[in-house]
Design goal:
MFS_trans_sf; transmembrane; MFS transporter; transmembrane helix
Amino acid sequence: VGSIGTFLEGPVIAWIVAQYGWSAMFTCMIFLSIFGALTSFRAARYQRMIKLSTSSVSSLEQIIS
């Protein structure tokens, strides 16, 4: 499954360049990079919230015991 992106990368880039030119390809790469960064930050924030909620439940269980 991890190689699908590598497999599709060449034909997709070639098609975008052939249809719209290199400037469109670079614009597309910029937007995809921004999208990837935003989703990574959101996932990290979500993971941090889960970790904090898990640690607070654990702390509460220790206090009750």
